[in-house]
Structures are given as structure tokens and as C-alpha cells.
Amino acid sequence: MNKSKLAERGEAKIEIVTGAIQEVVGRSIGNDTMEAKGAAHRAAGHARDEVAGAPERKLNRAEAAVEVVAGAAQQAVGRVAGDTTLEAKGKARKVVGTAHGLAARRAEHREGKVQEIAGAAKKQVGRLLDDPVQEVSGAAKELTGKARQALSK
To answer: How many separate domains does the chain show?
Structure first.
């Protein structure tokens, strides 16, 4: 974990504790607004901690989509149950899944572009060498790369 992630997790923990204190004080003095604000801060801290502590590995598009759906479900359950922490963790999970999905799409697009360029080069070499097999193989690779790019948008 790099320093910025460590610092973010530390700040999240501070927000959790601050929110919990505010929530307890609000409850003990009968101030519903203060109690609710404390619960909200605590939940936000848990969400920040969840995002900062997300795994470093990259997810593929399918895994990212599963995380988004699971996060939405967790968020909905938290909302229905009145559990702001669970709701915030679900929202954080959705955000992380969405970010991983975007990264996976961009990587797929880049790989498609590389494949397109390599195919175009192979096609040109086939033309120069008067090798129809290499030319057609290059054209096929070029089209496959273009298709990968189109599908990754």
C-alpha cells in the first residue's frame, strides 16, 4: 500500500471515529440532527476506507460488472435496513467496480489498437512481398483489432 492510500485510510478512520463520537453525543443529549450527522460521517468514513483499501489487482470487465451489481444490492439492503454503514459500503463497492470496468474497457481498446496496427503492417508486408496469405492474415488481424476497439466503447 503506498503512502497516499495509507494516508487516505487514516483519514477515513478519523472520520469514522469522529462520526461515531458525534452520533453518541447527539443521542445522549437528545439531538436527532447531530446523531444523524454523526451516523452519516461514520458511514462516509467507512465508504472512504472501503475505496482506499480496495484490492490493487485489476478486474476484467465481467468481474467489474459483478462488483457494480453486488455493490448496488448491498447499498439497497443497507438503505432498506436503515444501516448507513452497509449502504455506504455498497456505494463504495459500486464506485470501485465502475472504475475497474472503465480501466478494463480502456485496456481492451488499447490492445485492439495495437492489434489493428500490427495487422495493417502485416498486410502491407504481404503486399510488398506479393504474399497473399500474409496479406489476408494481416487484413484479418487488422479487422479483429478494429472490432475489439468498437466493442470496448
So the answer is: 1
Look at residue 17 and tell me if it is in a domain.
yes
Number of residues in the chain: 153
pLDDT in tens, the chain (153 residues): 455 777 888 888 888 889 889 989 999 999 988 888 888 888 878 777 777 776 555 678 888 888 899 989 988 998 999 988 888 888 888 888 888 888 888 888 888 888 889 888 888 988 999 989 988 988 888 899 898 888 887
How far is the C-alpha of 95 from the C-alpha of 45, rounded, in Å? 15
pTM for the complete prediction?
0.56
Is the CB of residue 111 less than 8 Å from the CB of residue 146?
no
Residue 64: alpha-carbon gap to chain centroid? 7
Q: Cβ distance 77 to 84 under 8 Å? A: no
Question: Which range of residues forms the domain containing residue 28?
Answer: 1-53
Q: Is residue 49 a part of any domain in this protein?
A: yes
* Phi–psi pair at 45, nearest 5 degrees: -65, -40
